[in-house]
Amino acid sequence: MDKAELLKNIGKKIRKVRLDKGLTQLDLVGKMQGDIDVTNISRIESGRTNPTIFTLYRLADALEVSILDLLKD
């Protein structure tokens, strides 16, 4: 698996979890610690950006899942 495919897979997983929980991207931003905007969430979900481990932690925390849940296929 190459980097682009990995980022797309992680982004799809984040989007799926978010939608399964009935959250919009704006809702997710509101639940996250620290500064992040909807544009960044969109980029992460589409696989266009490589989130830091801390951003993945904040996403997982806001979505009430583990980081591993976001990383596994």
Number of contiguous helices: 5
* Inertia-based shape: globular
The proportion of residues in beta strands is under 5%
Structural class: mainly alpha
Element order: H for helix, E for strand: HHHHH
Instruction: Give the C-alpha Rg.
Output: 11 Å
3D structure, described in words:
With 73 residues, the chain is mainly alpha-helical. Helices cover 67% and strands 0% of the residues. It has five helices and no strands. It has helices spanning 3-20, 25-31, 38-45, 53-63, 67-71. The radius of gyration is 11 Å and the shape is globular.
List the helices and strands and how they pair.
Layout: H1 3-20, H2 25-31, H3 38-45, H4 53-63, H5 67-71
Summarize the structure.
With 73 residues, the protein is mostly helical.
Q: What descriptors fit this protein?
A:
single chain, 5 helices, mainly alpha
